[in-house]
Amino acid sequence: MTDIKIPHDPEAEKSVLGSILIKPELLPLTMEYLTPEVFYLPVHRLIYKALRDLFDERKQIDLVSLNTQLQEKNESEQVGGFTYLMGLTEVLTTATIEQHCQAIRDKAQRREQYKACAEAAKIALNEAEYSPGEAAALITEKILGTSIRATKVKAFEAGQVARDRLKAYEENQEIRGVKTGLTDIDSIINCLPNGQLIILAGRPGMGKTQLACDIALEASKDVYTLFVTAEMTKERIVDRMLCSLAGVNGKRYQRRQLTEPELIRVANTASSFTSRKLKIVDRSVTTADIRALCYREKAENGLGLIIIDYLGKIVDKRLPGMNTNDHIGHVVGTLQNLSKDIDAPILLLCQLSRQVEQRKPPVPGNSDLRDSGNIEQDADIIMFVYREEVYTKKRPGEADILVTKVRDGEPGMCTLTFSKTEPRFKNMVRGGNVPWDQPQRN
Question: Which positions ≥6 away from 406 have C-beta within 8 Å?
Answer without folding.
Answer: 188, 189, 380, 381, 412, 441
